[in-house]
Amino acid sequence: MEYFCYNEHPDFQLDEANVETVLSAIQTYMPLDHYDVISVAFLNESTLVDLHMQFLNDPTPTDVMTFPANEGDDERVGEICISVDQAQKYATEHRQDLAWELTLYLVHGWLHLCGYNDLKIGDRRAMRAAEQAVLSFLKEHYLKLEIKYGKWSMPACLL
Known about the structure:
This protein is α/β, with parallel strands linked by helices. It has a single domain (2-153), classed as 3-Layer(aba) Sandwich (Collagenase (Catalytic Domain)). The protein has 5 helices and 7 strands, in the order ββαβαββαααββ. It has helices at 16-29, 45-56, 84-93, 98-114, 121-140; strands at residues 2-7, 12-14, 37-43, 64-67, 77-83, 144-149, 152-157. The strands form 2 sheets. The chain has a 4-stranded mixed beta sheet with strand order 1-3-5-4. A 3-stranded antiparallel beta sheet has the order 2-6-7. Helix 3 (84-93) packs across helix 4 (98-114) and helix 4 packs across helix 5. The longest helix has 20 residues, at 121-140. The protein starts with a strand and ends with a strand.
């Protein structure tokens, strides 16, 4: 499987090799065998709001959107779109590490591509349990995600 990272956020930098390491680990734990490519886009809030409106007719901010592969495409591409601004807001309000929050959003998007949904209460419980299982797997493997946000470099351990 191939991975592509795209970063639109002007104040946020990431190490693509680290993102690919996390994606590879998630693939090991919860394979997406029906995909050839996973694309991850780190976006600002306004871009994700535009996508939310365009595809779901909802003008409110959201943290993650996923776009599964289309049937019949030559290359099966899944896309995960992550709002860096929403992650930053949540991390600040809840005194969470930004890298940890972004990793959660990445896992959440991956699970949507696996077929998990979170619209109904029972589905949401299953999604949360799967999130915790994947995050625990990442912790067990001592993965680290290095990001830079604004002027501050933040090495962030998933522990």
